[in-house]
């Protein structure tokens, strides 16, 4: 499957990021099909990355070896029904679902077949090759898994998981967590504006600092706690700020937020 054709069904934010990561790391645009019900939503991905686009999911399904299901979880049952009803042979295809909160068992029920399936939990930094994708295989062989690894390694780190339940854990750790970091950055940006910096200055200050901090974590390879200590002079300004965050329970708040994320995924598994 080295020249596998990959169809992204429901090309929105997440598929755009994966496709971008693939193209930026040298995948052939000719082997990627992006679908959406709405052609106008496909113009950007076609212009930016030169991939094929298609408003008819069944044409993409018939042409592709790997089918990435990337509609919102609430749309998945309707989409899968059209595939199950299509009469197209699904048995040789590898399905990859990036949807949160829908299990392998439920996806197979929706497709009315024990299809070869990989559950994948990516994140949007995939666009820059800085993504993380948790992967869980059901019914795929080694060669197929190698092809999937190749695709998701192109977008960052691809990590195979032993248990399907770990997909929900990785949603909390990496799938949803870019939003936690963005919220933290928004809070700093907003306060910088309140302190009198212009919107442009506030944006520049927060983005440079966040990027610098993240790059130090990667570059220095020492405990993150030590990096923090290196900023924190005893009796100084950082110590005052950190003490406030800790008194307000930041660590517990983050832990509780991640538990809420996992709980929502489990609840979706019951609902969808
Ligand atoms: N956005 C994120 O950071 C992440 C999202 N995911 C998962 O990715 C999936 C997609 O999420 P987003 O990209 O954020 O959503 P999105 O709403 O940006 O993209 C989904 C697209 O699918 C289209 N669509 C809906 N039904 C369709 C159909 N029957 N045929 C063709 N296109 C159809 C919609 O028009 C929309 O443009 C979800 O299942 C979500 O759980 C997973 C990890 C991270
Ligand atoms: O919010 C969501 O449900 C999806 C899954 C991980 C990120 N976005």
In short, what is this structure?
This is Pyrroline-5-carboxylate reductase. The protein is α/β, with parallel strands linked by helices and 272 residues long.
- CATH architecture call of the largest domain: 3-Layer(aba) Sandwich
Mean pLDDT: 97
CATH superfamily heading of the largest domain: NAD(P)-binding Rossmann-like Domain
Examine the coordinates and then state which fold CATH places here, giving the name of the CATH topology of the largest domain: Rossmann fold
| Percentage of residues in DSSP E strands | 5-15%
Tell me the count of domains. 2
Order of helices and strands: EHEHEHEHEHEEHEHHHHHH
- Summarize the amount of helix as a percent range: 55-70%
DSSP, total strands:
8
Uncertain runs are: none
Strand arrangement across the biggest beta sheet: 3-2-1-4-5-6-7-8
List ligands, each type once. 1,4-dihydronicotinamide adenine dinucleotide, (2S)-3,4-dihydro-2H-pyrrole-2-carboxylic acid
The end-to-end span amounts to 32 Å
Could you characterize what this model shows?
This protein has helices at 13-24, 40-49, 57-63, 76-85, 104-111, 142-153, 165-175, 177-194, 199-220, 224-231, 237-247, 250-271, and strands at residues 6-9, 32-35, 52-54, 66-69, 94-97, 116-121, 131-138, 156-160. The protein is elongated and about 70 Å long. Helix 5 links the parallel strand 5 and strand 6 (116-121). Helix 7 packs across helix 12 (250-271). Helices cover 56% and strands 14% of the residues. It has an eight-stranded mixed sheet, with helices on both faces. It folds into two domains: 6-169, 3-Layer(aba) Sandwich (Rossmann fold); 177-269, ProC C-terminal domain-like (ProC C-terminal domain-like fold, Orthogonal Bundle), CATH 1.10.3730.10. It binds 1,4-dihydronicotinamide adenine dinucleotide (NAI) and (2S)-3,4-dihydro-2H-pyrrole-2-carboxylic acid.
């Amino acid at each position: 499957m080295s020249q596998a054709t990959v169809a992204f069904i429901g090309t929105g934010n997440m598929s755009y990021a994966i496709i971008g990561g693939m193209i930026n790391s040298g995948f052939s645009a000719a082997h990627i099909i992006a679908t959406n019900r709405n052609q106008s939503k496909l113009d950007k991905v076609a212009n930016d990355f030169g991939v094929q686009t298609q408003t008819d999911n069944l044409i993409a399904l018939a042409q592709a070896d790997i089918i990435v299901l990337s509609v919102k979880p609430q749309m998945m049952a309707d989409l899968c029904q059209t595939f199950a009803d299509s009469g197209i042979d699904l048995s040789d295809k590898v399905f990859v679902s990036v949807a949160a909160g829908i299990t392998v068992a439920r996806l197979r029920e929706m497709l009315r077949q024990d299809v070869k399936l990989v559950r994948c939990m990516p994140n949007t930094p995939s666009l820059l090759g800085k993504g993380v994708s948790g992967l869980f295989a059901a019914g795929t062989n080694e060669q197929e898994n190698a092809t999937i690894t190749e695709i998701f390694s192109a977008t960052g780190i691809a990590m195979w998981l032993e248990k399907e339940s770990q997909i929900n854990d990785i949603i909390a750790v990496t799938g949803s967590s870019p939003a936690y970091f963005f919220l933290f950055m928004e809070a700093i940006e907003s306060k910088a504006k309140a302190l009198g910096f212009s919107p442009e200055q506030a944006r520049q200050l927060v983005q440079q600092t966040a990027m610098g901090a993240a790059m130090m974590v990667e570059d220095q390879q020492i405990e993150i706690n030590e990096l923090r200590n290196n900023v924190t002079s005893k009796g100084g300004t950082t110590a005052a700020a950190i003490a406030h965050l800790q008194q307000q329970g930041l660590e517990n708040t983050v832990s509780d937020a991640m538990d809420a994320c996992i709980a929502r995924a489990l609840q979706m598994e019951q609902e969808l």
